[in-house]
Design brief:
- The protein is about 35% helix and about 25% strand.
- By secondary structure, the protein is α/β, with parallel strands linked by helices.
- It has one domain: P-loop containing nucleotide triphosphate hydrolases (Rossmann fold).
- It has a five-stranded parallel β-sheet with strand order 6-7-8-3-9, with helices on both faces. The protein has a four-stranded antiparallel β-sheet with strand order 2-1-4-5.
- Strand 4 and strand 5 (about 70) form a beta hairpin.
- The longest helix has 16 residues, at about 165-180.
- The protein is globular, with a radius of gyration of 17 Å.
- The chain starts with a strand and ends with a strand.
């Protein structure tokens, strides 16, 4: 049975002034796929994920999710995508649960879904702590939590392994395989070759 096409990228280019970061990039992703963008730091992995998320606009080319065009169908497109950034810089005076509840309210997600995601990422004991007090690894897990309760079909994880110890690298693999079983499509970037090859259905090499 042919799987549903979730993402289509064609002839995508990103230029920053005189520097071309991404040139003539193509990528497709189907329902339930785990796709690793692998390459060294600075290769353009984050740029690709930011363009798919809509955070950064491509200079040219076409990006569609579930048939919705990034530029032409902004609202519908955004409803189908959830993005975890690569850097934890949260200084707001919000607790873990307050931070996640903010995003849950925007998406119409229940309080129970928030609590479940907190438990999934192992932050139940920290739910009343301010996000500014979290370590880098815990901050990454917090950012992952807000993706987990998303109802989007395409999840974008930019360097989700940053700051994680060996135990949580194993837990992250388990979480990602669970997302796959739920027919979520996950595109993630990493500079860890072993992680990319072990968890990814496909490994797309960037900058090589």
């Amino acid at each position: 049975m042919e799987r549903k096409r979730i993402l289509t990228m064609k002839n995508v280019r990103k230029r920053y002034k005189k520097r071309i970061a991404i040139d003539d990039f193509h990528l497709t992703a189907d329902e339930g796929e785990l796709i690793a963008l692998y390459g060294p730091n600075g290769a353009g992995k984050s740029t690709i994920i930011k363009m798919i998320s809509g955070v950064t606009q491509p200079t040219s080319g076409v990006i569609k999710v579930n048939g919705y065009h990034l530029q032409k169908h902004r609202k519908q497109y955004a409803q189908n995508v959830s993005y975890m950034p690569d850097d934890f810089q949260l200084q707001q005076r919000l607790t873990v649960v307050e931070f996640l509840q903010f995003y849950a309210n925007l998406r119409g997600v229940s309080q129970q879904s928030v609590l479940t995601s907190i438990e999934q990422v192992g932050l139940s004991s920290k739910k009343d702590d301010y996000v500014s007090t979290l370590s880098k690894g815990m901050g990454q897990r917090l950012l992952l939590a807000q993706v987990l309760f998303s109802q989007a079909s395409l999840l974008l994880l930019d360097e989700p392994t940053n700051g994680l110890d060996d135990e949580w690298l194993t837990n992250l693999k388990t979480i990602m395989l669970e997302l796959k079983s739920q027919k979520k499509t996950v595109i993630f970037s990493t500079h860890l070759h072993a992680f990319a090859t072990e968890i990814g259905d496909r490994v797309v090499r960037i900058g090589e």
